[in-house]
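Subgroup meeting minutes
Present: P.N., E.W., G.H.
Scribe: E.W.

1. P.N. recapped why we're keeping a running log of single-chain structure predictions: easier to compare across weeks, and new members can see raw inputs and outputs side by side.
2. G.H. added today's entry (168 aa).
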Amino acid sequence: MNNSWMKKALIATACCFTLMSANALVGPHTGQAYAATSATASAKADGIISFAQSLQGKVTYKFGVNNPSKLIFDCSSFTKYVFAKYGVSLKWGTAYQSKQGAYVSKSNLKKGDLIFFNNGKTSKISHVGIYMGNGKFIHNTIGGNMNGVYIADLSKYSYRYATARRVL
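Output recorded in log:
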């Protein structure tokens, strides 16, 4: 046999085994890679939520504004800013964000999911927040004596709930 042909065969075999091993590690049937991905998403969600909470009392809400240097945001520029700190790129605007990632049913919400609301009168999405778990979410809002980042009970917004997206 030709020595050059033997080297090529060995290299091809090694590449094949490497690809098969890589596929085995990331395939949905193993559970291990999924658990690692899930753990990474969970850790990222914890960081995002913690960062959003750290902005309470520092952020001002203003409709249509995305001003990170002065910490003045509307609801979607706030989520855009917070997620960006963890390497997740979101578009600005609730209509755009409501199409990013994957749909999540209300019964399957996880920490870090984006949750969207309408105004209670129409079905048009007009607000976004970050699900924190245990029926709570954090959002940048204005109304009554509120202006800035607040934690709310999702149950109190159930009549306005529209949809959710998983971007982690």
